[in-house]
């Protein structure tokens, strides 16, 4: 089969021919229908050799931590899914045994690091291939009639903002404001989730006019270029008090200080982006009772919920499809900022 693999540190990924894997006991082999391209892949491919191998990632590694497929073959003992089922992959694999996993919160598994359990495409062989192995049917959720190419990215670009936003919903009733920084793959879905679930006015920042146009297209109430004037504009738009919740889908040196500085008293700042930013804070530097969090991905039940939002027509991922052979170009386009929404590999 063909697979899009990261084969050498610092080099662009390549399409290679490898044998179709066979499912071991308890595993499931999927015929992949779609695999989404995430900025985190770019982050992983930007790690030094020491950092990359230090994470326990294999080389070569098939990319893709957003996956959807049709169940193709069952490993011994698997009986909760059937050959032919259309499924989406829950990517943050955990042990299934610890307290967090028992609640479907495998993204916060307390045993995964020690046991070497890693997500597909982020330490395990991922979804950008004609077939992929899923280690346990627990890591599949039913996709049903949803189009896999349109919806595969809900497994990360939907689930991650959904998880982040759900924590702040009690603060986002009618008359409140939410700020979204970065209207890319995650951000443009986050805007739709905020509009669907909260009463907040959604103010979106990006550095790219086309991304702000996409933000308006998916329902943003206000859009602003993310520059030195943005803080003042957000304060103006919020009557001087700031935003009740800020979601930073960039996480860079320029954005995290901006995010905390526009959070209202008792507001939430959620940093999702892995952009190398940080902020020092103490009394006098941020508003009273601002809560700051750094979430990772989301819970299994939340993936089912975000797919239900798509079924209800409340979330529509803007997709740019690429063939597997064109996969390297998808990553080049992501790096140059020219993807509108999410790039998806269709094998
Ligand atoms: P993306 O490239 O699709 O989108 C990023 C957007 O941010 C683009 O629209 C870009 O123009 C915009 N941007 C860049 N610099 C900006 C700035 N200074 N101010 C405002 N906007 C700016 O990326 P993505 O796939 O949506 O991922 C977003 C981030 O989230 C990445 O850092 C990724 O690694 C991270 N991520 C984190 C998790 C998690 O669990 N915490 C999960 C998935 C992705
Ligand atoms: Zn991701
Ligand atoms: Zn666990």
Based on the model shown, name its key terms.
ADH-like_C, 347 residues, 16 strands, GroES-like_sf, Rossmann fold, binds nicotinamide-adenine-dinucleotide, 2 domains, alpha/beta, zinc, six-stranded parallel sheet, binds zinc ion, 27% helix, Quinone Oxidoreductase, Chain A, domain 1, 12 helices, seven-stranded mixed sheet
Précis, in short:
The chain has 347 residues and is an alpha/beta fold.
CATH superfamily of the largest domain: Medium-chain alcohol dehydrogenases, catalytic domain
Please identify the structural class as seen in this structure: alpha/beta
Q: In the CATH scheme, what's the topology name of the largest domain? A: Quinone Oxidoreductase, Chain A, domain 1
Largest sheet: 7 strands, mixed
In CATH's first tier, which class of the largest domain applies? Alpha Beta
Low-pLDDT stretches? none
Helix content: 25-40%
The distinct ligands, each listed once, are:
nicotinamide-adenine-dinucleotide, zinc ion
User: In percent terms, what proportion of residues is strand?
Assistant: 15-25%
The overall strand count is: 16
The best one-word shape is: globular
Number of helices: 12
Name of the CATH architecture of the largest domain? Alpha-Beta Complex
Give, in order, the helices and strands.
EEEHHEEEHHEEHHEHEHEHEHEEHEHE
> Distance between termini?
10 Å
Number of domains: 2
Tell me, rounded to a whole number, the average pLDDT: 97
- Gyration radius, to the nearest Å? 20 Å
Family: Belongs to the zinc-containing alcohol dehydrogenase family.
Protein name: alcohol dehydrogenase
Enzyme class: oxidoreductase
InterPro entries: ADH-like_C, ADH-like_N, ADH_Zn_CS, ER, GroES-like_sf, NAD(P)-bd_dom_sf
């Amino acid at each position: 089969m063909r697979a899009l693999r990261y084969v050498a540190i610092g080099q662009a990924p390549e399409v290679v021919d490898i044998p179709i894997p066979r499912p071991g006991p308890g595993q499931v082999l999927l015929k992949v229908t779609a695999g989404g391209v995430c900025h985190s892949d770019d982050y992983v491919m930007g790690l030094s050799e020491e950092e990359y191998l230090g994470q326990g990632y294999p080389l070569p590694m098939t990319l893709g931590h957003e996956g959807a497929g049709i169940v193709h073959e069952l490993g011994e003992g698997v009986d909760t899914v059937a050959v032919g089922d259309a499924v989406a992959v829950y990517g943050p694999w955990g042990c299934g045994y610890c307290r967090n996993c028992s609640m479907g919160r495998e993204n916060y598994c307390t045993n995964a690091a020690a046991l070497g359990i890693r997500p597909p495409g982020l330490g395990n062989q991922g979804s950008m291939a004609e077939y992929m192995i899923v280690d346990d049917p627990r890591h599949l959720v039913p996709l049903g009639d949803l189009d896999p190419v349109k919806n595969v990215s809900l497994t990360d670009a939907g689930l991650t903002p959904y998880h982040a936003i759900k924590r702040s919903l009690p603060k986002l009733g009618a008359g409140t404001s939410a700020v979204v920084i970065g209207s890319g793959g995650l951000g443009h879905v986050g805007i739709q989730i905020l509009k669907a679930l909260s009463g907040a006015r959604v103010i979106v920042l990006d550095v790219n006019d086309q991304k702000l146009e996409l933000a308006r297209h998916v329902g943003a109430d206000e859009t602003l270029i993310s520059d030195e004037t943005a803080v003042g504009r957000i304060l103006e738009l919020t009557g001087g008090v700031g935003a009740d919740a800020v979601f930073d889908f960039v996480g860079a040196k320029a954005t995290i200080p901006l995010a905390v500085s526009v959070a209202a008293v008792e507001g939430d700042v959620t940093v999702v982006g892995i952009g190398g930013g940080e902020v020092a804070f103490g009394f006098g530097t941020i508003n009273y009772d601002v809560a700051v969090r750094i979430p990772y991905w989301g819970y299994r039940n939340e993936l089912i919920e975000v797919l239900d939002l798509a079924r209800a027509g409340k979330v529509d991922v803007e997709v740019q499809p690429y063939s597997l052979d064109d996969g390297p170009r998808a990553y080049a386009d992501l790096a140059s900022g020219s993807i509108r929404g999410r790039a998806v590999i269709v094998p």
